[in-house]
Amino acid sequence: MSGDGSRPNSKVARVIEEYELEGYGAELEAAWTGEAGDRTSLRDLADEFNRRVLDAAIRQSGGAPVSTDVQSTYRTLASDDVPQADRMRKRRDLEREGVDVDAVLDDFVTHQAIHTYLTDYREASLPERSADVLDRKAETLERLQGRTTAVTESTLETLTEADEVTDREYELFVDVRVVCGDCGTDYSIGDLLRQGGCDCDAA
User: Fold this and answer.
1) Any residues with CB less than 8 A from the CB of 36 and at least 6 apart, and which?
2) Are residues 115 and 22 part of one domain?
3) What is the pLDDT of residue 66?
4) Cα angle at 115 between 111 and 119, to 5 degrees?
5) DSSP assignment letter at 177
């Protein structure tokens, strides 16, 4: 799919083509938008995508993966909770079967890459009802911030008048900020919710 010059480069699209996962892009879009039922989160989609890649790599090497084995193998390779010795043992097992483990790991993607693929490459978007929910949640949190500001200002004024707090010109800041742990981008909570999370691509 990389031959369409009108579309942005996408690691997810490249990997889908490389592993011959025909039709999988449409599956990802349907799962994310909830076309086939409940919506699937971007993180769950990334994990499912990476398991598909691992499954395809094992098949291409001549192996015959079983669903439970792929699940277990993926967790061993990708989880930080797995002991290094177990991870190395699993790598050696795969390499003996002809799997290029380093190449497979390089082809794993993040939830940000899935989001970029869906929104930029496939130009998918969430249903309006989801956008409405996000907007309502953002407004609720912003109202809470407003109430917190009012209560805090009133408390300061009361304590100042009672000489419990020194009488000064105080500036009050009540602003809930969220920083993306992958790219470091700083958002107000309202902005983050309304855009459906950070859209950085760390892959």
Assistant:
1) 30
2) yes
3) 65
4) 175
5) E
- Does the pTM surpass 0.85? The reply is no
Rounded Cα gap, residues 73 and 101, in angstroms: 11
At 6-25, the pLDDT tens digits run 667 899 999 999 999 999 99
Q: Are residues 20 and 109 in the same domain?
A: yes
Q: What is the pLDDT of residues 26-62, one digit of tens each?
A: 999 999 988 867 889 999 999 999 999 999 999 998 8
**Among 41, 12, 203, 46, which Cα is nearest to 126's?**
41
DSSP-derived 3-state class of residue 186: strand
Q: For residue 154, what is the enclosing H or E element?
A: helix 128-161
Q: What is the CA radius of gyration of the chain?
A: 24
C-alpha separations of 104 from 9, 16, 81 in Å: 19, 12, 20
| 157 and 102 in a common domain | no
Residue 160: which domain range? 128-194
- Gap between the Cα atoms of 161 and 14, Å rounded: 66
Average per-residue pLDDT in the chain? Answer: 87
Per-residue DSSP letter, 187 = E
Q: Which domain-ending residue is among 106, 121, 136? A: 121
Is residue 116 located within the same domain as residue 17?
yes
Same domain, 147 and 67: no
